[in-house]
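Key result, reporting period 2: structure in, sequence out.
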């Protein structure tokens, strides 16, 4: 199935569906009319002899250098070559696919002056499984993600490296084997390909998609922990949350109520429980996780706008004017990436505190120390909890904002930058850490619930434990638990564990 993406109207769900698939994409053909119109307007301006930045001038600090008309194509090729200066491991192929789709959406706004054939050539890279090798580092998120997008453009012109059907090779050879011809760039086309926020935005979107799934799943692991600790469901009364009014909090409380409904464990201590209030990690789960959901929704709204934006420079405006601006500055992406990082960190922080509660006999309301059947002889989940604490601490450090760390570049022409690209890329590592924290919680909470036998948890949570037990057996004897953490982290990352009849949508 080929995904049809419409510039200015592509949604987060459209982008996630494309990202999680292996299919190709095409722009809505109606968009190509405006694309060709802007290319024609640019051609007319060039014929008039007007000085146009990056078209018949140099770049950045060299903008005052005029380029002769017979060198305009060479200028664009040289731009791609000189800016292909990235460093580090190649970005994963699914992220590169998303970068290319976002670049086409941006060019598809009809304000970049490129030919429609350039967009078709980008689409064909995906269609024929030619994936540019894009090093993960080198962008400061202003004047566009220049280095990453230059490596993308290099493949288009048959230079640099690419993966063809998963095999790394020279880009020219990849195009040849795929039956594709290199693109000969015309005036401004190299600049239009390089300017833009598509690498930062793609990384932020992938971070968001992963964080959202983990945030919703954390409500399931929280519900398991609440029942394992014989916590109260009274704090999830709907009126408490409607009195405050935050959407994410209301939805989180509803999800917890639904997951815990019918639990024999809960019903066994409704009366006669001398505890007045549970610790915050149980009682305030809707407030904390709900706030994170609300922040991630804000991130999503911003990234959806950015995904549909024209972000290169200069832009061909509707009246035919060609105007230099600053849409390539990725500050919106940088700030939202920082918000997403904080939310990811907080979800892990409160989950880790629930793990710590469950393994502590002073807090777990009758569970054995470290959830070991024979504490002392066996250490149970003692060090699994330590691992969750280590990952929580890493995420706290990674949550420090990147957007405040501007540094001048390009001989002070680019004197304020966003740092959006690595600000977004660090979300991927944070999601990996969070998935492992939630894996430890799932392991501990399942163990705790089963130690309450013969009392049973709710049917919905029993079904969750059934899925957990497919990849992580109960802890009866001490064993190496790293594989269990890895297996559960993969399960949690790739499924919406405990999804109810009223799922929470981004």
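The corresponding designed sequence is given below.
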């Amino acid at each position: 199935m080929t995904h049809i993406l419409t510039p200015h109207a592509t949604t987060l769900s459209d982008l996630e569906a494309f990202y999680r698939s292996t299919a190709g994409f095409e722009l809505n053909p109606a968009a190509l009319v405006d694309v060709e119109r802007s290319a024609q307007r640019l051609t007319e301006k060039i014929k008039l002899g007007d000085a146009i930045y990056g078209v018949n001038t140099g770049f950045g600090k060299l903008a005052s250098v005029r380029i002769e008309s017979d060198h305009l194509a060479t200028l664009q090729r040289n731009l791609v070559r000189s800016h292909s200066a990235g460093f580090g491991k190649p970005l994963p192929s699914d992220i590169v696919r998303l970068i290319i789709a976002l670049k086409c959406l941006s060019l598809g706004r009809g304000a970049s002056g490129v030919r429609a054939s350039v967009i078709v050539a980008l689409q064909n890279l995906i269609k024929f499984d030619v994936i540019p090798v894009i090093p993960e580092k080198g962008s400061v998120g202003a004047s566009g993600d220049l280095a990453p997008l230059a490596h993308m453009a290099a493949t288009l012109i048959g230079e640099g490296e690419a993966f063809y059907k998963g095999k790394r090779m020279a880009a020219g050879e990849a195009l040849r084997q795929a039956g594709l011809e290199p693109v000969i760039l015309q005036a401004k086309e190299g600049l239009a390909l390089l300017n833009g926020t598509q690498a930062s935005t793609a990384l932020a979107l992938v971070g968001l998609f992963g964080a959202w799934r983990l945030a919703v799943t954390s409500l399931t692991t929280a519900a398991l922990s609440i029942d394992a600790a014989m916590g109260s469901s009274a704090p999830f009364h709907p009126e408490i949350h409607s009195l405050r009014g935050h959407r994410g909090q209301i939805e989180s409380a509803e999800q917890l109520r639904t997951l815990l409904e019918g639990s024999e464990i809960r019903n066994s201590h409704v009366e006669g429980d001398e505890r007045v209030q549970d610790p915050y990690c149980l009682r305030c789960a809707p407030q904390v996780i709900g706030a994170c959901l609300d922040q991630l929704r804000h991130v999503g709204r911003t990234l959806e706008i950015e995904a549909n934006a024209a972000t290169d420079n200069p832009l061909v405006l509707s009246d035919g004017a060609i105007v230099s601006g600053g849409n390539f500055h990725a500050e919106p992406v940088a700030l939202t990436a920082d918000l997403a990082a904080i939310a990811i960190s907080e979800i892990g922080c409160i989950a880790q505190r629930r793990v710590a509660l469950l393994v502590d006999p002073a807090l777990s309301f009758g569970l054995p120390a470290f959830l070991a059947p024979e504490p002392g002889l066996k250490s149970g989940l003692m060090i699994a909890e330590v691992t969750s604490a280590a990952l929580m601490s890493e995420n706290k450090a990674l949550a420090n904002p990147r957007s405040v760390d501007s540094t001048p570049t390009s001989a002070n022409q680019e004197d304020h930058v966003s740092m959006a690209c690595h600000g977004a890329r660090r979300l991927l590592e944070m999601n990996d850490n969070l998935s492992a924290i939630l894996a430890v919680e799932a392991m501990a909470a399942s163990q705790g619930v089963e130690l309450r036998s013969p009392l049973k948890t709710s049917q919905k949570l029993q079904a969750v434990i059934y899925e957990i037990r497919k990849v992580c057996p109960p802890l009866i004897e001490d064993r190496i638990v790293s594989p269990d953490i890895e297996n559960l982290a993969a399960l949690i990352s790739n499924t919406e564990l405990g999804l109810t009849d009223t799922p929470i949508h981004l």
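The two ends are 24 Å apart (CA to CA). The longest strand covers residues 87-90. This case is discussed further under Risks and Mitigation.
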